[in-house]
């Protein structure tokens, strides 16, 4: 019946101190500084470690999962292993029916907020494009340089030489040669 803590911040510049202070009563704490969208080896290790009767403790739901689907997958794994989940800031404890209901409701609301944020971001991108804003990295070579690069390649200049002279990668050389 151990209390296992999990703390996560998204970037190296952020501090785990606040979460760790809230998790001080845990028997063991897993922590990492990783984005929720990438691989999180410490979360995987934490979920492998917890056993029947244990309680996984996090400060907030968004520290645990990246989406409602991911949250439900974690919840299913914990339920299968008979491990409870306690979320301190939202006062959720899945050891009872009310806590489980609240857990799923908050997860759905969090997913809704994420989707709204994505829609607003997409709207902003469309507006910017309509105003003529271009996205992505600017081209490394001018059209004149691209024409010169193609001509030199047709004359038999090695890709390696073109890479060095134009200070671009092999993939970029091939991309410029391919684009018509």
From TrEMBL:
**Per its UniProt record, what InterPro entries does this chain match?**
Recombinase_CS (IPR006118), Resolv_N (IPR006119), Resolvase-like_N_sf (IPR036162), Resolvase_HTH_dom (IPR006120), SSR_resolvase (IPR050639)
The alphabetical list of record keywords is: DNA integration, DNA recombination, DNA-binding
Domain called Resolvase/invertase-type recombinase catalytic: residue spans: 2-132
Recall the GO molecular function terms of this protein's record.
DNA binding; DNA strand exchange activity
Family, according to the entry, reads as follows: Belongs to the site-specific recombinase resolvase family.
GO BP term, example: DNA integration
Q: Does the keyword Ribonucleoprotein apply?
A: no
Show the active-site residues: 10 (o-(5'-phospho-dna)-serine intermediate)
Which PANTHER family does the annotation name? DNA-INVERTASE FROM LAMBDOID PROPHAGE, RESOLVASE HOMOLOG YNEB
Q: Does the keyword Metal-binding apply?
A: no
SMART domains named in the record: Resolvase
Name this polypeptide is given: Resolvase
Q: Where are the transmembrane segments?
A: none
| Domain of life, per lineage | Bacteria
């Amino acid at each position: 019946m151990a209390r296992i803590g999990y703390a996560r911040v998204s970037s190296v510049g952020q501090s785990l101190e606040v979460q760790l202070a809230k998790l001080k009563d845990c028997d063991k704490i897993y922590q990492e500084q990783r984005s929720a969208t990438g691989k999180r080896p410490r979360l995987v290790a934490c979920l492998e470690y917890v056993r029947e009767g244990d309680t996984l403790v996090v400060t907030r739901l968004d520290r645990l999962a990246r989406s409602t689907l991911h949250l439900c997958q974690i919840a299913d794994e914990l339920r299968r292993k008979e491990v409870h989940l306690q979320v301190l800031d939202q006062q959720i404890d899945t050891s009872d029916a009310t806590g489980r209901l609240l857990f799923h409701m908050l997860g759905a609301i969090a997913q809704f907020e994420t989707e709204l944020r994505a829609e607003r971001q997409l709207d902003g991108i469309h507006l910017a494009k309509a105003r003529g804003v271009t996205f992505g990295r600017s081209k490394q070579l001018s059209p004149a340089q691209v024409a010169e690069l193609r001509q030199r390649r047709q004359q038999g200049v090695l890709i390696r030489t073109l890479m060095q002279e134009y200070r671009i990668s092999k993939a970029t050389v091939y991309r410029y040669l391919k684009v018509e």
